[in-house]
Amino acid sequence: MATDIKGLTELLNKDLSLEYSAAVQYIQHSAVMTGAQYGDVIKELKIHANEEIGHAMVLADQIDFLGGVPTVNVGDVKTAAGCEAMLIQDLEGEEDAIARYKTRIEQAEALKEFALAQQLRNILAVEQEHAMDLRQAIGK
To answer: How far is Cα 65 from Cα 78, in angstroms, rounded to an integer?
Structure first.
């Protein structure tokens, strides 16, 4: 648990690196995914990629505001051979993001960073939407 602003900005930088990797992963998956049954899914993944870039911008601005330096490091990007495997990787990434942002909101509020907590809530809502889209795409 982040006990001070410096610790929180370090955690936010980890989140930022994972937003970068999520965008890259969505771009790669949407480019290599094939099959008529995935046409709408591919379009949705491209939207997700853009939304992840938007999350990265919000996080970078918040990190800067808190006195940190936004990272340029990209987290791990997962690739797979099959379309369903790609979607499962994407869903796992979204579920991880949901858990991290729930924790980050609590940490921000504990430090009385309520505006940050609100920005994180907005990101969380979109991540949950992504998870719902992916679950539907893989029939979960």
So the answer is: 31
